[in-house]
Amino acid sequence: MPRKKVRLEHAVEYLSILDKQGKPDKDLDPKIDKDTLLRMHRTMLLSRRFDEYQLRWQKQGRIGTFAPAKGQEASQIGSIAAVEDDDWMVPSFRETSVALWRGTPMTGLLLYNAGYNEGGQIPEGQNDLPISIPVASQMNEAVGIAYAMKMQKKDRLVMSYFGDGATSEGDFHEALNFAQAFKTPNVFICQNNQWAISVPREQQTPSKTLAQKALAYGMPGIQVDGNDPLAVYAATREAAERARKGDGPTLIECITYRLSVHTTADDPGKYRDEEEEEHWQEWDPIPRFQHYLNNHKVLRKKDIEALEKEIDEEVKSAWDEAEEQMKSLDDPLVMFDHLFEERPAYLEEQRQAMKQYREDRNG
Ligand SMILES: Cc1ncc(C[n+]2csc(CCOP(=O)(O)OP(=O)(O)O)c2C)c(N)n1
């Protein structure tokens, strides 16, 4: 028998709507209403300033380590703004902009980053999962929730977030395969920020794109300019429509860049060069979006100045509130509280020992 070619249809589209100066391709502009545009911009700016304050507070020893979202605000806000409030959101550990959009208070994030479990609690009625540190582990949870939504015939989709590094994990492949096999309403947002700590994107995989990994599972995959909130929004809208119609999941690869450290325990100066950082700085999503908003008379320069002041106050008062709450939460014994419904004897013993130790020390 002669060898035959198995013809596979595959193509990955790349979508970009704004140019470097924030000028849109008019035919592709998703024409988002003014209130939504303003809310998107405000949340992106808030996330940026909140990151900056947190970096300072970490250096001062007020909070522990965290993963800044700086540079990735358009990928995060462009995607989450395109779905409904009662859809589900399953994050990894860098989704500050998404969390703020969804209504997670800054005080909660500060408490969490300062080591207080209570800060990780999702506000009542908000369909979000907590931060997930094990890379890609949240993806199967996202598929499980989507499968449940489908079985319960609920019109809710599931957004899930992860990085380029996550695509090398088994969980990523299991999640994509299951999702497509069962046509679950998932939208997978891969934030390809070019680095997985110190591992560059080229070393992560020889695949030309990450979006093409969807094609192996028979799923649509698209690459978008992840520093262009309009492109991310438009791609997510399409994916959301597909999910709601029962046509299954989509993988969206957002091409973006981590403009800051991986976490505060990292020094990117050791593994990436300044030229690369300078190149991406020019594509910073915030000024680019501001140019667009300014050209469309949605936001003027003086509005931005006023907003900066407002945000500054908001972030500082979130810290004051978090600090106040820390005073009443400063009991290390809570670490034993949420592990088991009924605490096993060995843990009870450890808890008692710690309690005794503290009492003896404090007199
Ligand atoms: C299963 C697992 N392995 C290793 C780590 C340590 N780790 C934390 S973040 C990270 C890199 C993740 O890179 P990527 O998925 O690209 O996301 P990014 O941090 O760039 O947002 C690694 C290896 C972890 N948290 N979980």
From TrEMBL:
Its cofactor is thiamine diphosphate. The keyword Transmembrane helix does not apply. It catalyses: N(6)-[(R)-lipoyl]-L-lysyl-[protein] + pyruvate + H(+) = N(6)-[(R)-S(8)-acetyldihydrolipoyl]-L-lysyl-[protein] + CO2. One of its GO terms (biological process) is branched-chain amino acid catabolic process. One of its GO terms (molecular function) is pyruvate dehydrogenase (acetyl-transferring) activity. Keywords: Oxidoreductase, Pyruvate, Thiamine pyrophosphate. InterPro entries: Alpha-ketoacid_DH_E1_comp, DH_E1, PdhA/BkdA, THDP-binding. The keyword Membrane does not apply. It comes from the Bacteria. Signal peptide: none annotated. Gene3D superfamilies: 3.40.50.970. Residues 42-326 form the Dehydrogenase E1 component domain. It holds the Pfam family E1_dh. Its EC number is 1.2.4.1. Heterodimer of an alpha and a beta chain. The pyruvate dehydrogenase complex catalyzes the overall conversion of pyruvate to acetyl-CoA and CO(2). It contains multiple copies of three enzymatic components: pyruvate dehydrogenase (E1), dihydrolipoamide acetyltransferase (E2) and lipoamide dehydrogenase (E3). This is Pyruvate dehydrogenase E1 component subunit alpha.
